[in-house]
Write a structure and sequence with these properties.
The complex is a heterodimer of chains A (about 500) and B (about 600). With about 500 residues, chain A is mostly beta strands. Chain A has a single domain, classed as Maltoporin, Chain A. In chain A, about 5% of the residues lie in helices and about 55% in strands. Chain A has 4 helices and 22 strands. Chain A has an 18-stranded antiparallel barrel. A two-stranded antiparallel ribbon of chain A has the order 8-9. In chain A, strand 12 (about 265-270) and strand 13 form a beta hairpin. Chain A starts with 8 loop residues before the first helix and ends in a 6-residue tail after the last strand. The relative contact order of chain A is 0.15. Chain B folds into 3 domains: about 45-160 and about 270-495, TIM Barrel (Alpha-Beta Barrel), CATH 3.20.20.80; about 165-255, no CATH class; about 500-605, Sandwich (Immunoglobulin-like). With about 600 residues, chain B is of the alpha/beta class. Chain B has an 8-stranded parallel beta sheet with strand order 16-15-14-7-2-1-18-17. In chain B, strands 19-20-21-28-25-26 form a 6-stranded antiparallel beta sheet. In chain B, helix 9 links the parallel strand 15 (about 330-335) and strand 16 (about 355). In chain B, helix 10 packs antiparallel against helix 11. Helices cover about 25% and strands about 20% of the residues of chain B. Classes of the chains: A mainly beta (about 500), B alpha/beta (about 600). The interface between A and B is large, with 49 and 43 residues.
């Protein structure tokens, strides 16, 4: 994805539009400054100036492993090279209103579709997720929003990953823009939200006898009560400073500082599969995260380079859409940590382009065991050079290296189990909207060949013939698009 | 070939990344987790004090392997693991323990008939570890740590059987049935037979059709990975031909049933007479010794295997480990039987180094000590003397070639109780005095003492699984009277070579159990032998629960080998009370109920003891 010039993309994009005004007036300008005479009679308060928008991000592919099976994702790291990733699509319906030059609003609803799709499986039921459902209001440089929202910063396209901030909560936030000079501004954004995953780590219902007052009517029966309800509370603070070089065209720097705190209340898990039910106390937990980003952009042809660093401790080391698998002796995530450094870049010059994505990530759980699958280092280097053949066609080549070293003994070497894979691919494509690594839609043919070392194959059951291969091929037809989306501007 | 991408050419790439991590450094595994160099850690096994650990019940060091754990239900997993043991090695040191025997380590069928394999005796794959207890690294760390502090670790293995890994398809319907009805002949009585665990059949478990028996029932392996009830491993163990297939033992006194039948609970009996099966067992278990550096085997259910198996198994194991630098590897077997002669049969030439002294458990610790509270059942101490007198007759009198260097009859593994029998305090109805007196015998008699975990905390569970209590609710307290008594006995045994290596001579025993002068008196000397000519100790105890008794009776007084006039000191008594051997070589003592004296010459008393 392109670099998002302002952090908290959806928020700031709206801020920008509101501040500039739909009439193209400069930020903060009032309509009373135009040359038209004032109306003799005030216009009645009427409906706002508004419109509906439709946007989308999507990718669809159908592939084969050239051995008679469907092609599948062969990555061995948390955020691997995306060449063989599965289909996914978002459909966004948005209402945008401008009430005065100072006041605007936006209501966003985004549905996400997950494979398999009906024409593949014959199953008419479809996995659909609500990824956005929120309303936002702006008053000059202040923005407020509440709802369920994807709330995130810049990504690394080749890895399909947001390495610094990527929240998916039910909550709300505020942003404020500070303008220092033309081309220089700072945005401060804060957010707080909740997540309570459908996991007995956070939520559980158990049967209980109906209250005595109701049993005369309903007889002796039970009702479900919520016995465990401990959402993860997440607070974020992000400061984004953007500066272009005065008098030197559109290039500039973007600096981001980002921090999170996360908390979990105490609770009790009840195992109702045994009699009498067993209970396990789940203690309070918390964590923090801090990181930053430095990006340089030329302002031309989506050319940029961005560097991320991040460190997290405790519960914040775990993706909020997952729950910890292992714990410290006190059943908290104390001692867990994640440290990462990541790089994303795009360069386009003449008929050539180069996309790069890379990261190194060190994850440690808090368990007392020095050897566990939840302690590992991993890294990826992915690059996609491409040649634009005229304005509509192109051919991209993909190279990637992935490695993950576990704190597990490799039975063959008695050293840490180090899974490694190399990948090479080629993607000839048609780009109706023009040339460029970020031009979409893109209709393409994909071929990738992945070589795995024996340790990588040990991550799969010996009975898994497909994943026990040292060489994995992937041939697919694919398409990708994005347009007019709050999440993918 | 790209498929052969080497394992070692990638770490440098990760190293570049981790070099830049703040406070990081590349991931590694502890040195303790890597394969050890094998070494011999024991000079003489009689110097050891063994402590039996059921891993699932000792300590929970890592809650992350607590899957399928149901606290309080003793038939199911409770959460103990190898890391928990390592975390509490200091507790064992305080008790004076020098060797741990840990329950089996290999992957088991998880559960069967609402009972879990927490004990480890339902093995399914001899090449994999039981994930409930940790991983190879944590096991190595435990053993390495133990060796660093001078402690040895004995591995529990099973050669007789695997878990319930297959069923007999008696009605040939390709699925396991809880019960099938008889022969199919309507004139026959209805017989209910479980295909999981059918009874002994002399011709092998038969399949049945409507016409009657139709030959050996097919052996079909289960395929339920969710509970590891899958085809056993390795090698030939995955084939039906590796099993006898005669159904479960119904008469344990029938030698054919005992050695060919499935063990209680549908545990499938291995065809241990097959050379391929023998080689597989030798290799599978020796591989764990090589990977972890264990110091010995405790071998389960030896009486259910033909006797000629043991010289082959033991010989091949000794030779293989000796080639890797490990000698005096201790192999002792378990036969849950009071037949002293049968026990001794497993210590014949070339066979095992030792066995559990089960006959002593019954004839001495149960009949003399545990029943002492019951005037009707209590037995005299002459039973002890009578049993000990049979040692050289029933047990091997020559050290096994390549073995521990000690004749089996001198290295019997003595124990009061274990996981297969009720705890002493259950049978004795809480007679703590009798327990402590029994402990005194355990720690002073010839052989190798073996203490069942929890004894030091006065555990009093009944039969399985009540006798397998979690230890951690005790808080690993070390200030209890029984704990302190054991610790004192351990230190005394370590301090006095006579108690470890001396020969045995019974100087007083009696059939009396009532009001006779010597009722309950038992006295024996440990002297000279491998301890050296000057070493001497005299143990005098009264097993009577009700009265003080004297070392005299029937007109005589106890005569000892110590020279007349020798001043003996009771080192079990904190006051070090002295006693002098009279001029005629006798020693007359009054011993209170369920108490004992450990007397050593005053000039041999070790400082502090």
């Amino acid at each position: 994805m392109r670099i998002i010039v302002f952090s908290c993309a959806a928020t700031i994009t709206t801020l920008s539009a509101a501040a500039a005004g739909d009439d193209g007036s400069p930020p903060g300008a009032s309509s009373s400054h135009d040359d038209r005479p004032p109306p003799i009679v005030s216009a009645p308060a009427g409906p706002s100036e508004g419109h509906f928008e439709f946007g989308s991000y999507g990718r669809v592919r159908v592939g084969s492993d050239l051995r008679g099976h469907t092609g599948s994702d062969a990555n061995i790291v948390a955020h691997g090279d995306r060449i063989d990733e599965d289909s996914y699509a978002e459909l966004e319906l948005r209402r945008e209103d401008t009430f005065t030059p100072h006041v605007a609003s936006k209501v966003v609803a985004t549905l996400a579709l997950f494979p398999p799709f009906f024409h593949f499986s014959g199953d008419p039921t479809q996995a659909i997720a609500v990824r956005n459902l929120y309303a936002q209001g702006t008053l000059d440089d202040l923005t407020l929003w509440v709802g369920s929202r994807m709330y995130r910063g810049d990504d690394i396209y080749l890895l399909d990953w947001w390495p610094l901030d990527n929240q998916n909560t039910l909550g709300g936030g505020a942003g404020y823009r500070l303008r220092w000079a033309p081309g220089a501004e700072t945005v401060v954004a804060a957010h707080a939200g909740l997540q309570r995953l459908s996991s007995t780590y956070q939520y559980e219902q158990i049967p209980a006898p109906l209250p005595a007052a109701l049993t005369p009517q309903q007889g002796p029966t039970s009702t479900n009560i919520t016995s465990l309800d401990r959402p993860r509370t997440i607070e974020t603070l992000k400061v984004t400073h953007l500066a272009t070089r005065p008098g030197h065209g559109p290039d500039g720097l973007k600096l981001v500082l980002y921090a999170e705190t996360q908390e979990l209340a105490a609770g009790v898990y009840t195992d109702t599969t045994v009699a009498p039910p067993g209970q396990t106390a789940l203690p309070t937990d918390w964590g923090w995260l801090a990181g930053g980003e430095v990006a340089y952009f030329t302002g031309r042809r989506n050319t940029f380079v961005q560097v991320f660093v991040r460190h997290a401790e405790g519960i914040a080391a775990y993706d909020p859409l997952s729950v910890p698998l292992t714990f410290a002796s006190d059943r908290t995530t104390r001692g867990s940590s994640e440290t990462l450094a990541a790089l994303g870049a795009n360069y386009e010059q003449g008929p050539f382009g180069l996309l790069v994505g890379a990261y190194f990530r060190s994850f440690r759980d808090g368990s007392p065991s020095p050897t566990t699958s939840q302690k590992y280092d991993e890294g990826v280097l992915a690059f996609r050079p491409q040649v634009y053949l005229g304005d509509r066609w192109g051919i991209a080549f993909e190279g990637a290296f992935e490695a993950r070293r576990y704190a597990l003994l490799d039975p063959q070497t008695d050293q840490p189990l180090t899974a490694v894979e190399w990948r090479a691919g080629v993607i000839p494509y048609f780009s109706p909207s023009g040339r460029g690594s970020y031009a979409r839609p893109q209709v393409r043919l994909i071929y990738a060949l992945t070589a795995r070392n024996p340790a990588a194959r040990e991550l799969y059951p010996t009975e898994d013939a497909i994943n026990q291969r040292g060489i994995v091929q992937f041939l697919a037809l694919g398409a990708e698009w994005w347009f007019n989306s709050s999440s993918y501007p | 070939m790209i498929e052969q991408l080497p394992r070692r050419w990638s770490p440098w790439v990760l190293a570049v990344g981790c070099a830049g991590m703040p406070g990081g450094g590349c991931l590694s595994v502890p040195a303790d987790a890597t394969e050890p160099s094998l070494a011999t850690h024991v000079d003489d096994w009689r110097n050891e004090i063994i402590y039996q650990v059921i891993v699932d019940r000792f300590a929970d060091g890592d809650l992350n392997n607590d899957f399928r754990v149901h606290p309080g239900d003793l038939a199911l997993y409770q959460g103990g693991d190898w890391r928990g043991i390592e975390d509490h090695l200091g507790y064992l040191q305080a008790l004076g323990i020098s060797t741990m025997w840990i329950s089996p380590i290999v992957q088991n069928v998880e559960t069967d008939a609402d009972i879990d394999s927490y004990h480890g005796y339902w093995q399914q794959d001899l090449t994999k570890l039981n994930a409930h207890f940790g991983d190879l690294a944590s096991l190595r760390s435990l053993v390495s740590h133990a060796h660093r502090i001078g402690m040895k670790v004995v591995l529990d293995i099973v050669c007789n059987h695997m878990g319930q890994v297959f069923f007999y398809d008696i009605n040939r319907n390709n699925r396991p049935d809880d019960y099938v009805n008889g022969s199919g002949n309507t004139m026959d009585p209805v017989v209910q037979i479980s295909e999981y665990d059918p009874p002994w059949s002399p011709g092998g478990v038969q399949a049945y059709t409507q016409l009657g028996p139709s030959g050996r029932a097919p052996i079909l392996f289960f395929d339920d990975p969710s509970i590891e009830r899958i085809r056993p491993q390795p090698g030939i163990l995955a084939t039906a031909g590796a099993y006898h297939g005669f159904g479960h033992i119904e008469n344990f006194d029938d030698v054919a049933q005992r050695t060919l039948g499935d063990f209680t609970g549908g545990l499938k009996d291995l065809a241990t007479e097959l050379p391929e099966v023998r080689a597989t067992l030798v290799d599978a278990f020796a591989t764990w010794v090589e990977k972890v550096d264990f110091d010995g085997y405790r071998i389960d259910t030896v009486k259910h295997i033909e006797n000629d198996f043991w010289p082959v198994f033991a010989g091949a194991t000794r030779a293989r480990l000796a080639n890797r630098g490990k000698s005096r590897f201790f192999m002792f077997g378990e036969a849950l039987d009071g037949n002293d002669q049968l026990l001794g049969s497993y210590t014949g030439p070339g066979a095992l180094d030792s066995v559990f002294y089960f006959s002593q458990h019954y004839a001495v610790f149960r009949d003399v000590f545990e029943d002492a509270h019951d005037r009707a059942r209590a037995r005299g101490t002459d039973a002890i003397a009578a049993l000990w007198q049979q040692k050289t007759t029933h047990y091997g009198t020559q050290a096994q070639p390549g073995g521990i260097g000690v004749a089996p009859y001198k290295a019997l593994v003595n124990f009061i109780d274990n996981h297969d029998v009720e705890r002493f305090l259950f049978g004795s109805e809480g007679d703590v005095g009798a327990l402590r007196n029994a402990l005194t015998l355990l720690f002073t008699e010839e052989g190798i003492p073996c203490l069942y975990y929890g004894t030091e905390q006065d555990f009093a569970g009944g039969n399985d699984p009540a006798n397998r209590e979690p230890l951690w609710p005790t808080g690993f307290a070390t200030d209890g009277a029984t704990f302190q008594h054991i610790a004192a006995l351990s230190h005394i045994r370590h301090a006095y070579p006579a108690l470890r290596l001396g020969d045995t001579s019974v100087v007083w025993s009696t059939p009396h159990v009532a009001q006779e002068e010597d009722a309950g008196i038992f006295a024996f000397e440990r002297a000279a032998g491998d301890a050296g000519s000057g070493a001497y100790a005299l143990i005098v105890m009264n097993t009577n629960d009700f009265k003080t008794s004297e070392t005299r009776g029937d007109g005589g007084v106890m005569r000892v080998q110590a020279s007349p006039g020798t001043l003996l000191v009771d080192v079990l008594d904190p006051g070090h009370t002295p006693y002098r051997v009279s001029a005629d070589g006798t020693l007359e003592l009054s011993v209170p109920p369920q108490s004992a004296l450990i007397l050593v010459p005053a000039n041999q008393v070790v400082g502090g003891l």
